[in-house]
Amino acid sequence: MKNRIIHIVAGSFILISLLLAVKVNINWLWFTAFVGANLFQSGITKWCLMGTILGKLGVKD
Known about the structure:
Elements: H1 2-23, H2 29-45, H3 49-56
């Protein structure tokens, strides 16, 4: 369950920031890069901040 929520949140953040980059300001692409870097880091280290936050909120794996 937790991984599914993480994928939904990350995908939503990417799509929203891309939309904001097109409609508001190109600098929103930095947020897209931040999300991508965090996905990359969690793939290498097997640790995800969002997973830790969701765990503290009581979401089960």
